[in-house]
């Protein structure tokens, strides 16, 4: 446009200029807005989206799951979890349950892109208006946003969290299908009673699986995600009914149920089972040891790896046998109670405040182990005349009459009832109304039962009750085994030329220690000596002098080597250790005795058979042998496939059997005759340590070996009368009478090469012919010998009189040295 034309007609030109300038400014402001949006998005990204998981991470996400534990028969018995959860696939959720949660939480779930913009705007406005008031704004979150919040973002109360939640919700919707999102949500959501996910909640509230839930039960679960504590049946039953019926109305409005279904369900009671009605998980010393071993191997939390104990969803097969465990627990508790019977009440176990209404929680937190299932922890609430009101952990109450607490207080005297005061935590037994006072023994002990063929630990009891004391005396208590150590001395002797018929002097034995200490002289428990006797007789009667003499003759280096290779412990080569002065644990002793029953082959005690990950893949196994053909789809009719025996031979198989055979004599004629009437072959050895501070028994049958000790946690004398044969052996007998009742009677199997020969167990001489049972030679038995060690000298009837005189005569050390070795 020229200057002249503008002057002739200025108005149209001006309009063109304005139109041009307006167009330029529009584009410029549009650019400004675009740049502002871009910069804002970048700012939001750096401020809120950084650190959120990527799509690949979301696809790989696995819900934290508890570790599930099964027993030796494959039955579920326990789980290790901080969050009780059972994962299901989407197809396993009943459609009605899905409809209920959608009606209660997110009606437009299948149509929105992850965020309900109307609901989100309302939530932001509500947050703004309530800012500073102390009131919490409504959530306005979709199910996808709840997944984001519960899985990744956290639950802090802020605008930033809502923004991060929305960003992640979009990302989740882009990476997962709606069904996958719902699967995560229904498996993850917290629903109270420490239940995470609908399957776990179904069991917690109704003691059934989700597939078995009724419509009103499904509707109740659907009201819980927002605030489970607001709808507990114990405190807010009416509120729970109203909210449940609201969900039912929503389901009807959404077309998921009919009016008739709605009416029927709305009239139904809640039907929630009490917490204490749920089947308890197996706990105790065994499960705690399993938990420790799993944590040592796989880690504890999700940060420790995909297969961690509390998040990995492991499936663990253990060697735990409920029948054997119950028998061991009851037998040990009975023995502990029996030992302290008549000593009186040991006093209160704790003191709590009962002035308020929170005493049930305080009583539960006191962590009292009552032991027997019929015993209960209780707290004295008040006393009035001849009765005391007591309360229990579930909030219920009962009466303790004075006649139920007449036992004297230990060390003081007087009726125990007179010492009770409000707040005293005690243990009682009763029928629901009147109770009697019980006393938790101060003495304790440990017990282990093992399969001698495999090393599987079938049962373990580490004290009175794991709830009262987590210290596992079966695996952690180092105690002197006393005479239960002697079989390792004699096993070393059998490996070094001696036989069960070898003659050993049961007489005075002293050793020179040093110029300062002088001589150390050993003695038998009874203080008496019996002269020359066979090795077998010495083991059966647990003679100390014969044991130290044997150890001295063959060399203590051989004895401690045998104890070492059998896993008992590493000890210095001092003669006192031949009598059990070294410390060891019950589980080590039981495993070593199991090696005797396993023909001298090494065993490793195991509580866990194998571990699978959440998908069923085997990730660890105790038995690492390869079994060719064990998994064949169909048996081919040939010999059944078996894994090869690859256990290390730690002692000679014939030596192991000889010791086992000798220890059968301990049960038949020696210090463990309390076990003689069990009606099956039993071997074992009793033990009593100096003091006596500990009493022991270890032994068992061909298919089950066990052992136990009793003693105070701070070692002190149990009383001069305490012996392994009179205290520990009867406990094992009580256990075996129940645990072995239905087991087949199996003899101990002798290895190849063993020769059974009739000998006199007192003189060690080979016997020909039959002798009357009431004769001097009623001690004639079949003895196990190695091929090169058969006794050559024989005894006949005419030698009886002369032999009686020889046996009665005191035998000197010089006579022993001339005839030692036991081969005539």
UniProtKB/TrEMBL annotation:
One of its GO terms (molecular function) is serine-type D-Ala-D-Ala carboxypeptidase activity. It is a single-pass type II membrane protein. The chain crosses the membrane at residues 29-48. InterPro entries: Beta-lactam/transpept-like, Glyco_trans_51, Glycosyltr_51/Transpeptidase, Lysozyme-like_dom_sf, NA-bd_OB-fold, PBP_transglycosylase, PCB_OB, PCN-bd_Tpept. It comes from the Bacteria. Residues 74-252 form the Glycosyl transferase family domain. Its main location: membrane. It is found in: Cell inner membrane. Residues 445-734 form the Penicillin-binding protein transpeptidase domain. Pathway: Cell wall biogenesis; peptidoglycan biosynthesis; Glycan biosynthesis. Keywords: Antibiotic resistance, Carboxypeptidase, Cell inner membrane, Cell membrane, Cell shape, Cell wall biogenesis/degradation, Glycosyltransferase, Hydrolase, Membrane, Multifunctional enzyme, Peptidoglycan synthesis, Protease, Signal-anchor, Transferase, Transmembrane, Transmembrane helix. Its EC number is 2.4.99.28, 3.4.16.4. Gene3D superfamilies: Biosynthetic peptidoglycan transglycosylase-like, DD-peptidase/beta-lactamase superfamily, Nucleic acid-binding proteins. It catalyses: Preferential cleavage: (Ac)2-L-Lys-D-Ala-|-D-Ala. Also transpeptidation of peptidyl-alanyl moieties that are N-acyl substituents of D-alanine; [GlcNAc-(1->4)-Mur2Ac(oyl-L-Ala-gamma-D-Glu-L-Lys-D-Ala-D-Ala)](n)-di-trans,octa-cis-undecaprenyl diphosphate + beta-D-GlcNAc-(1->4)-Mur2Ac(oyl-L-Ala-gamma-D-Glu-L-Lys-D-Ala-D-Ala)-di-trans,octa-cis-undecaprenyl diphosphate = [GlcNAc-(1->4)-Mur2Ac(oyl-L-Ala-gamma-D-Glu-L-Lys-D-Ala-D-Ala)](n+1)-di-trans,octa-cis-undecaprenyl diphosphate + di-trans,octa-cis-undecaprenyl diphosphate + H(+). GO terms for cellular component: outer membrane-bounded periplasmic space; plasma membrane. One of its GO terms (biological process) is peptidoglycan biosynthetic process. Residues 345-443 form the Penicillin-binding protein OB-like domain. In the C-terminal section; belongs to the transpeptidase family. In the N-terminal section; belongs to the glycosyltransferase 51 family. This is Penicillin-binding protein 1A.
């Amino acid at each position: 446009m020229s200057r002249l034309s503008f002057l002739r007609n200025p108005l149209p030109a001006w309009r063109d200029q304005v139109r041009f300038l307006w167009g330029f400014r529009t584009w410029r402001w549009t650019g400004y807005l675009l740049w502002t949006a871009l910069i804002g998005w970048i700012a939001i990204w750096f401020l809120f989206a950084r650190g959120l998981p990527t799509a690949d991470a979301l696809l790989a996400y696995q819900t934290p799951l508890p570790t599930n534990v099964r027993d030796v028969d494959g039955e579920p018995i326990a789980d290790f979890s901080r969050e009780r959860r059972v994962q299901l696939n989407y197809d396993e959720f009943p459609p009605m349950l899905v409809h209920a949660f959608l009606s209660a939480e997110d009606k437009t779930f299948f149509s929105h892109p992850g965020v309900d913009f109307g609901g989100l705007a309302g939530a932001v406005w509500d947050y703004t208006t309530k800012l500073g008031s102390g009131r919490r704004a409504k959530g306005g979150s979709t199910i996808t946003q709840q997944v984001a919040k519960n899985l990744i973002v956290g639950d802090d109360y802020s605008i930033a969290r809502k923004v991060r939640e929305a960003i992640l919700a979009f990302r989740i919707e882009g990476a997962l299908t709606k069904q996958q999102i719902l699967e995560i949500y229904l498996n993850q959501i917290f629903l109270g009673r420490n239940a995470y996910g609908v399957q776990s909640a179904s069991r917690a509230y109704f003691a059934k699986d989700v597939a078995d839930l009724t419509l009103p039960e499904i509707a109740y679960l659907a009201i819980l995600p927002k605030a489970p504590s607001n709808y507990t049946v114990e405190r807010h039953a009416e509120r729970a009914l109203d909210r449940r019926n609201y969900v039912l109305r929503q389901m009807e409005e959404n077309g998921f149920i009919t009016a008739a279904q709605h009416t029927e369900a709305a009239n139904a009671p809640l039907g929630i089972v009490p917490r204490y009605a749920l089947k308890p998980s197996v706990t105790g010393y065994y499960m705690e040891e399993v938990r420790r071993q799993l944590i040592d191997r796989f880690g504890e939390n999700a940060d420790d790896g995909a297969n961690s104990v509390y998040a990995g969803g492991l499936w663990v097969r253990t060697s735990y046998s409920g029948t054997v465990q119950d028998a061991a627990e009851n037998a040990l508790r009975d023995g502990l109670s029996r030992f302290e019977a008549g000593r009186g009440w040991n006093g209160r176990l704790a003191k709590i405040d009962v002035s308020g209404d929170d005493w049930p929680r305080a009583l539960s937190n006191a962590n009292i182990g009552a032991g027997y299932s019929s015993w209960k922890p209780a707290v004295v609430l008040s006393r009035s005349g001849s009765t005391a009101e007591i309360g229990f952990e579930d909030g219920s109450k009962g009466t303790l009459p004075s006649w139920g607490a007449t036992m004297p207080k230990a060390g003081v005297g007087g009726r125990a009832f007179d010492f009770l005061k409000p707040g005293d935590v005690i243990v009682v037994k009763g029928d629901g109304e009147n109770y009697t006072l019980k006393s938790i023994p101060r003495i304790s002990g440990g017990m282990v039962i093992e399969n001698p063929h495999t090393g599987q630990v079938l049962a373990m009891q580490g004290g009175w009750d794991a709830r009262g004391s987590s210290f596992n005396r079966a695996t952690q208590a180092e105690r002197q085994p006393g005479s239960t150590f002697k079989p390792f001395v004699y096993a070393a002797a059998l490996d070094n030329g001696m036989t069960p018929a070898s003659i050993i002097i049961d007489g005075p034995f002293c050793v020179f220690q040093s110029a300062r200490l002088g001589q150390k002289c050993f003695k038998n428990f009874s203080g008496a000596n019996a002269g020359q006797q066979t090795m077998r007789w010495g083991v059966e009667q647990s003679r100390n002098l014969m044991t130290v003499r044997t150890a001295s003759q063959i060399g203590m280096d051989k004895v401690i080597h045998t104890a070492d290779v059998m896993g008992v412990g590493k000890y210095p080569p001092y003669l006192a250790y031949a009598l059990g002065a070294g410390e060891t644990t019950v589980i080590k002793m039981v495993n070593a005795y199991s090696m005797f029953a396993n023909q001298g082959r090494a065993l490793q005690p195991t509580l866990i058979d194998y571990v699978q990950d959440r998908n069923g893949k085997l990730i660890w196994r105790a038995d690492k042998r390869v079994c060719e053909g064990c998994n064949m789809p169909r048996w081919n009719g040939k010999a059944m496939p078996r894994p090869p025996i690859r256990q290390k031979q730690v002692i000679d198989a014939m030596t192991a059997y000889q010791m086992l055979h000798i220890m059968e004599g301990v049960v038949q004629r020696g210090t463990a005759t309390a076990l003689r009437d069990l009606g099956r072959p039993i071997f074992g050895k009793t033990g009593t340590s100096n003091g006596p501070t500990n009493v022991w028994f270890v032994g068992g049958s061909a298919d089950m070996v066990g052992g136990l000790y009793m003693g105070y946690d701070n070692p002190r004398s149990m009383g001069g009368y305490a012996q392994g044969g009179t205290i520990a052996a009867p406990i094992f007998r009580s256990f075996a009478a129940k645990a072995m009742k239905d087991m087949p009677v199996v003899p101990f199997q002798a290895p190849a090469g063993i020769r059974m020969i009739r000998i006199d167990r007192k003189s060690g001489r080979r016997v020909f012919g039959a002798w009357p049972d009431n004769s001097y030679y009623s001690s004639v038995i079949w003895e196990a010998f190695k091929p090169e060690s058969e006794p050559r000298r024989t005894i006949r009837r005419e030698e009886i009189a002369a032999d009686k005189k020889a046996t009665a005569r005191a035998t000197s050390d010089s006579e022993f040295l001339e005839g030692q070795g036991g081969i005539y």
